[in-house]
Design goal:
With 537 residues, the protein is mainly α. It is 71% helix and 5% strand. The strands form three sheets. The protein has a two-stranded antiparallel ribbon with strand order 1-2. The protein has a two-stranded antiparallel sheet with strand order 3-4. Strand 3 and strand 4 form a beta hairpin. About 1% of the residues have low confidence. Belongs to the cytochrome ubiquinol oxidase subunit 1 family. Its EC number is 1.10.3.-. GO terms for molecular function: oxidoreductase activity. InterPro entries: Cyt-d_ubiquinol_oxidase_su_1.
Length: 537
């Protein structure tokens, strides 16, 4: 078997990124759920909500620490495995990551410490504020990372400087408010909220099946189902927004996800299922839903959506225009200080397609020497793997809709049916605990694999981005990362299961103090009020 440096580098980064994202969504969602639970505790004074916050906070802490460990390692790979990428676009890509470290990560890390060690040092309101700041820090961290990733999907606010041979930022505002980045942020954090809601509901369902910690479990199911229902609905709505933005920024990715080879008359249908065949340029046995793809992709009934074949032809035109830009760029480099006006004019006219000329570097050292066959091959390279994208997207969407049904059922049972949960429903809640992670990983697969052959869409091909490493070095580091991350994953699972089996600690002194206050209130007034506790049993 022949190993390729670029493919090994991609494999290593994919492995570390997917391991890292096992921890991220639970951190995002649990941080908000903790803030909600502690807010209820401050409003009611009931110790059960304090116990809930502490218990779920312990699981949050385990997940947070291991998420940080895997995230730091992943970011170092930009310098180790993707040094040319870091050189070429580091001025833009590095800025959001720097802000994330300075603003979000330190905010989050500081207040995580106060959350765990400040229970007896801070007032109830102060500690609640700390918990909300932990949630804010977690979500801000995701925001800046997704701004960086969104720029890779839609590189706005930057231009190529022929003098430095690098991309340079022209508008930080455009980078931050990139439509792809904003859509990815809200979609990703909503998916994290669903992940945490399913986790909390599943663990609580297990307690109810075992008849343990039932008061905590019932309240946790109530919070998780209502929060999870809102989040699941948001994921579907915001996923639709991602599809709409892809129509303008990543047409090839959207066409591949849809398995749409030919341009359809408006409005385009949605292929519910089918079997994409890249060799035959056809999706066999497709079951179509009329109009749906046109409405998702264009928000209209009159706009066409281009198919893969037309987009390949468009890519070929852009490659030819990119060759003109490349030729002008070489002239600029060779005549530094005395650049001909014609060369500068040609470069300015065609520089947007320079990245397409770089696709030819896979086949020829100088894109200007490419023949017709090589140009056609480079254009064909712009088509990602259609079948994997097609099915990954549909499994992800199917799981997303299933969470709406599950959360709606538990919400109704908790809110209107006296918290009566049939045992089959509780077992279902336990069984589906891993599925949000599957959906999240599939989502990232669609986003990143669907962008190929680009590291930065339309700007820098993946084949040019990797460091000059040896196969042996990559294999050794890949084996090391797999081993290290597997050990961390085993530690995570062991600690989580240990503390789930142990359950919440019984805060006896706090409970007795609350009962004394409660009895005093009953003796001094009728107990009515917006936050009045339930009568003691």
């Amino acid at each position: 078997m022949e190993f390729d440096i670029v493919e090994l580098s991609r494999l290593q980064f994919a492995m570390t990124a997917m391991y890292h994202f096992l921890f991220v969504p639970l951190t995002l969602g649990l941080s908000i759920l903790l803030a909600i639970m502690e807010t209820v505790y401050v409003m009611t004074g009931r110790p059960i909500w304090r116990q809930m916050t502490k218990f779920w906070g312990t699981l949050f802490g385990i997940n947070f620490v291991l998420g940080v460990a895997t995230g730091i390692t992943m970011e170092f790979q930009f310098g180790m495995n993707w040094s040319y990428y870091s050189h070429y676009v580091g001025d833009i890509f590095g800025a959001p990551l720097a802000v994330e470290g300075l603003m979000a990560f330190f905010l989050e890390a500081t207040f995580v410490g106060l959350f765990f060690f400040g229970w007896d040092k801070l007032s109830e309101v102060q500690h609640m504020i700390v918990t909300w700041l932990v949630a804010l820090g977690s979500n801000l961290s995701a925001l800046w990372i997704l701004i960086a990733n969104g720029w890779m999907q839609n590189p706005v606010g930057a231009v190529f400087n022929p003098e430095t041979m690098r991309m340079e930022m022209t508008s930080f505002f455009d980078v931050v408010f990139n439509q792809v980045a904003q859509a990815k942020f809200v979609h990703t954090v909503s998916a994290g909220y669903v992940t945490a809601a399913v986790f909390v509901m599943g663990v609580s369902a297990w307690y109810l099946l075992k008849g343990r910690h039932t008061e905590l479990a019932r309240r946790s199911v109530t919070v998780a189902s209502s929060f999870g229902l809102a989040a699941a609905l948001s994921v579907v709505v915001l996923g639709d927004e991602s599809g709409y933005s892809a129509t303008h920024t990543q047409k090839m990715k959207l066409a591949a996800i849809e398995g749409m080879w030919e341009t359809h008359d408006a409005p385009a249908p949605f292929n519910l299922v089918g079997f994409p065949d890249k060799e035959a340029r056809e999706t066999h046995y497709a079951i179509e839903i009329p109009w749906v793809m046109g409405l998702i992709g264009t928000r209209s009934l009159t706009e066409e959506m281009p198919g893969i074949n037309d987009l390949v032809e468009e890519a070929e035109k852009r490659i030819r225009n990119g060759i003109i830009a490349y030729d002008a760029l070489m002239t600029i480099r060779e005549t530094r200080g005395n650049v001909p006006d014609e060369a500068r004019r040609l470069f300015e006219q065609s520089s947007d397609d320079l990245g397409y000329a770089f696709l030819l570097k896979r086949y020829v050292d100088d894109p200007r020497d490419a023949n017709e066959q090589q140009i056609a091959m480079a254009a064909e390279d712009t088509v990602p793997g259609v079948a994997p994208l097609f099915w990954a997207f549909r499994i992800m969407v199917g799981l997303g809709f299933s969470y709406i049904a599950v959360m709606a059922y538990f919400f109704v049972q908790a809110s209107f049916k006296g918290m009566h949960f049939p045992r089959p429903a509780l077992w279902l809640a336990v069984i589906i605990i891993p599925t949000p992670w599957i959906a999240a990983e599939l989502g990232w697969f669609v986003a990143e694999y669907g962008r190929q052959p680009w590291t930065v869409d339309g700007v820098l091909p993946t084949a040019l981005s990797a460091s000059h490493l040896s196969v042996a070095e990559l294999l050794i580091t890949l084996a090391g990362f797999v081993t290290f991350y597997t050990v961390l994953f085993i530690i995570e699972m062991g600690l989580m299961l240990k503390y789930i089996r142990k359950g919440p600690s019984e805060d006896v002194e706090e409970t007795e103090a609350w009962m004394a206050r409660h009895e005093h209130r009953l003796r001094t007034h009728d107990g009515k009020g917006p936050f009045a506790p339930e009568p003691a049993e």
